[in-house]
# Entry
Amino acid sequence: MKKFRLRDYLPVLIMVLCAAIFGVLLATGVMDLDTVPQLVADRPVLAVLVVLGLYVLKGFSGVVVYNALVVMVSMVLPLPAALAVNGVGTAACLSISYAMGRFTKTESLESVLDRHPKI
# Structure
């Protein structure tokens, strides 16, 4: 049987941590869909960085709603810039999600399936 190592479950732990932080921000009212456009209305570079950061957070956790990010970008940026930011953000989000799934160890599931062939 394989020895338990915390490093093997690091992507899952990062995802849980991101979900907890985002949940606390939503529950306390610090962040919502209306807050971000108001904060960055006069600073488009900051808006792009904030949105890309949220796309990265979306890649780590399922808590951030993808549609809300797309709508928020369209509210803050003009159309050509919004399309570019959404494209880069989507690529980052999918790449992070893929990497997390790819590098998460699955030996524990395979060992259970080997011990119980009826599953």
